[in-house]
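#lab-general

N.A. 3:47 PM
ok so I finally got the sequence cleaned up, no stray characters, all 176 residues accounted for. can someone with queue access submit it? mine expired

B.Y. 3:52 PM
send it over

N.A. 3:53 PM
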Amino acid sequence: MSETGAGEARDDLAHDNGQPESAGDGAESELADLRSRVADAEDQRLRALADLDNLRKRCAAQVSRAVADTQAAVTSEWLPVADNLDRALAHSEADPDAIIEGVRAVRDQAHAILARLGFPRRDEVGVKFDPARHEAVAVQADTGAEAGTVIEVVRPGYGDREHQLRPAQVVVAKAD
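B.Y. 4:20 PM
back already:
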C-alpha cells in the first residue's frame, strides 16, 4: 500500500468507528452554538431596552396629561372667583357697604375652593404652638394666655400636616 492509501484507510477507519474526523469540528460546532446564543441574548437585551424606553415615554406622557388635567380642574374651580371679582369691580361706583359685602362673599368662595382642594384655612387662636403647623413671627407676654399658646394669627396657614401649602404665621404667648 502506498503512503497515501494508508492515510485514507486510517481516515475511513476513524470515520467508520463513529469518531469525528478531527477534534476541531466539535469545537467549531460548539462555538457556533455559543455565538448563536450570544446573538439571541443580545437581541433580547436590545428588545428589553426598547420596551423600557417605550414605557418611560408612555409614563412621561401620562404624567404630563395628568398635570394638564389637574391644572385645568383647579383653574376651573377658580374661574367663578375671577368672575365675581370682575362683577365687584364693575359695581365700584355703587354703595361701599355692598362692595365690601361682595368682596367678603368672594373671599369666602375662595376659602371654600381651597378647602375642597384639600387645603383648608387655618387661623387658630388659643391653640398650643406647633412648629409643624405654625411659624412664630413674634413672642409676646400675655397675662391672659398660657405660655406657648398662639395669641394672634398674622397670616393664616393652609392645608394639613401631610399637604400643607404654608404654615400659619403666629404670635406666641411667653411666660411673664
